[in-house]
Amino acid sequence: MSATTIDVPLLGAKWTIGFFGLFHTAVASLSIGLAAIVTVLQIVGYRRRDRRYDMLARRMQLLHVCIYNIGTIVAIGLIFSLSGLYPQFWSQLFVHFFWTLIVEEFIFFLLAATLTLHYFFWQKMWGHKKLHILLGALLNPLFLLQFYLINGIGGYMLTPGYEAGQADVAGTIMGWDKLGFYNPSFLMLTAHRAFANIAYGGFSVAAICGALHLVSRREKVRQYYEDGGRCAFYTGFLCFISLPIVGYFYAHVLKYDANEAYVNLMWGQGDVVALGIDWWWLKHVFVAAMFGLSLGYFRDSAKRQGATFALPAVLIWSLATFYLMYYMAMGMIMTWSFFFWELAIALASAWLGGHLVRYHQGSARMLFILMGILSFLTVMLGGYVREAARPRFVNRFSHYDYVYPPEQRQPVLMVDKRPEDVFTPEEIAAAKALPKGKLILRSGAEQKFLDPVALIRVNCSGCHTLERVKNYKLTQHWSLIVSQMRAYGLKLTDDEARQIVEHLEAAKPY
Amino acid sequence: MPDEQPEAKPPEPPPDDAKLAAYKDGVRGLNWFVTPVPIFKEEELEAMFEPYPLAKPSEDQRWAIWTVWIWVGFTVFSIAFILWLIVMGFYYGGHR
Amino acid sequence: MLESALLRANAGEDESVDLPVIDPPVFPRWIWIEEITYSHITLATYITACMVLAPVFEYIGWRRRDARYDRLAVGLIWFSLTLFSPGAALGTGIPMWLMGTYPEFWSRWSNLFFWPLMAQFVFFIFEVIFLFLLYYLLWNWSVNHKRFHILLGAVAAFWGLAVQVVWDSVGGYMTTPNVRLPGVDEPVAWSLKACLNPSFPFLFSHRFVGNISWAMLMTGGALALRSVGRKPAEDRAYYNWAAHLCFTVGFVAFFGMPVIGWFYAQVMGRHAPVAFHAIMGGHQGWMFIVKMALIALFVLIGGAYVFLRYQSRLLLWGMTAGLALLWVVLTVHPPLKWLGDSALVWRAAYTVALAAFAALLWAIRGRWSVETRGWKWAMFVAGLAAFLAFCIGGMVREGARQPQTVYGQLEKPETLPRERDRFLLYERCVQCHHRTVNEFNRYDHRRSWADILSDKDHRGVWKAPDEQARLLRYLEEYYR
Questions:
Q1: C451 partner at 20 to 30 Å CA-CA among A69, C1, C174, C322?
Q2: Residue C154 is part of which domain span?
Q3: pTM for this model (two decimals)
């Protein structure tokens, strides 16, 4: 409708941003993970007086130094392309979060200098080894702080949350939107990503060790890569195992504060499904594979060491059980197809994991490589599906339309246009109308559904899947069924129950 | 007539260049000031596995240690400052 | 007419600029921008100079079979790598600050240069890949593949210079814009004409040569001090040799600067006359003179150094030719009135000074040693002076353009009426019949400014009704 934006040939604006975002994530997430792994390796080396761990830490820190600059440059490419391709969005976001970004930028500088000193002074500080380890360890709180800040902004894009934090720049301090920053999902996003990055870093280091093990000939050098890789793998695994739990609570937040995105993820809608593939489902297949591989590895490891059971394996089993319980009991959505696919992949991967270790004479090198590849893919897919799940920008003028309806954008509008100049009357009316089919919920207890489709989807999938509803044969008795459900514990007002029954009796789609 | 031309002689090996050899040795053994670029042959790598080369504190270059201490101090102060900003930001900003 | 359009815009009559401008605490926004920009530029220019010179030194070492050159090259690269990450991090801070504190400038300027900014991202990626992953990491491996390794270094330097080309192009536009700055809702995205703006080639060459000059002078000075420390004799000898090489390279490179600078000033005079006059006798004149004084200092030290240390006739006569070149530049320049009004006195004075200096240099040739501690400190002082002269150059250019962010097209949000009036004065009065702003100081004050401005000679100069009043106010305040 408006030609006030730059067009990128072939890729298009969305995928230009997507390319920069994914490229940056691949590198920056790895940076965060590497910082943690390097610290662990250095401490292990120091405690055991084993130089091999220190040498591996140094080589990984060299990798870190190289990719850090690539990450920096891609970040600035991302910012330039956002400001050029989504100018309205970017300028509004910038006004809300200017100081957040400036402080984050300062931390970025601290990180760069600390990382540089840590790597380039490695050989100069053998008389002050603890100081050197402290210098490297400082990267971790710095990364965490930076992460905390950037995820406030990232979370805001998905769950702008509390109404007060929206579209209002007349706050106390220009450039800082407290309520926008402390949006519903920022904490879960931070936690999920923090653990995921360390897992990604650990698995990547293990994969590199696996690859180097493959090309090495000397026994001691192979053992060096095996031991270093195992250390990194264990560190990564510890964080990995927490991800489903954190992820569950993240999804829980999305359910109530970004319901359309939640629905897109869980039911495979919107851009989450592209080229015929449900990428959210695919990500979970990879995650299941990773758990299965880990299970196979730990069981095989335990057998080789003559241990009666493997604690990590027990952890995996427990996690899977608890997760399933929570998942079903707390009303998350999962089709049976999804569930069985995950189970099958996990079991097959468990067998594969054990087989890989046995085939390579007790070395986990191929398993490490496979885990590294899978963790990279899950990181990429995680970022993609989160962005894809969010409803599309409308004409690149806003994110999550509800937050910036046209008439509220005026305070920060740089363009000398009013909504009447830009949108047709129908578009303005549609923007002002109550969102239909958009399951926008207010947070907390007031969950007002405006659409029977939404009512059915959310309420009927709390205890069982929608397929059960769709396959139900006795379709003359919907009111009885709904009453039964209410007796079983489903919370519905009379009005909501009436809407659901009417919709089901009319055999309308949902 | 076939094959009237004499057979091509194999190329002569290049003359030994002692200066080149000395140059390469000097370059290869670079270890002053610069952290050596860590691409090693496996034998060299293995030789570095032991011992864990802790040194006496006095053996480290003072300027390097001073630089690190100053930087660590600045960074810790910056972290504290940023945490304070975050706390302040929690109380101020947004009038609702 | 442009100036009055800007007036209206700032008076709020044009509502297309209503994006809130964020005011940072403690310092005004221009100081924040300046601080972060200068932190970045110092590191970036040093790295670029090292990237250009390292493969050259490596090649020379390879041809001469002298490992010291290789050690110097890898030392320069190593040091550049330590600076790279913080420099890049600071570089990301510049657009962040600009977007928040100068939002209209950013959105309009990046509208015009979207594709060049994307291009510089690609160049930067290649620079990092070639510098870190190939040139640095493969150094030891490349002992038997030296030519290939030098090629890698040259390619890395090429990408680094490509990044500089983009930034000098988009930066040069701010001083000599040759296309209209688009509005916030006009996504031009790319303009070859704007990229090839008049001052771009001169800004790029001035910075290219200047980077090498200041970086090597500063490095030479620092290595000179390092060579006097308590070290193994071998190290001392190496640092001494490296200091002399770097210092000489930096000093010789300097002599390209006045020539390029001359043509740069010409272009500015033609396309950004107000900025030109601000530097040449206007409100930035004092800063420019300080810069010249710093240059004079390191030319004095460097000249004496060259004549004391080197015997090569080529170098010494080349240096003399350089001084002659300085004489030419001063002669083509309009006479300064520092020694009174007579142009002859001025011309005679600098001719005598330069000739005496040249004679002195030839007289002291090879007479004393430059290996003393005092001379090491002198080299360091010269390096420091070169570094400060480099810093001041940027400040001069940016300050001369004030209060406009893009010359003649966009004003900064916090423009004061005084600054606007000053711009008007330079624009209306200086070029017409005055050669420099300083002439207002020497004006015949028997007539009042009001009389002068309202006489028949000045009819037709005013393009808006209030211009005469504003000029009168400014002249009476600052030129009485």
A1: C1
A2: 1-7+23-197
A3: 0.82
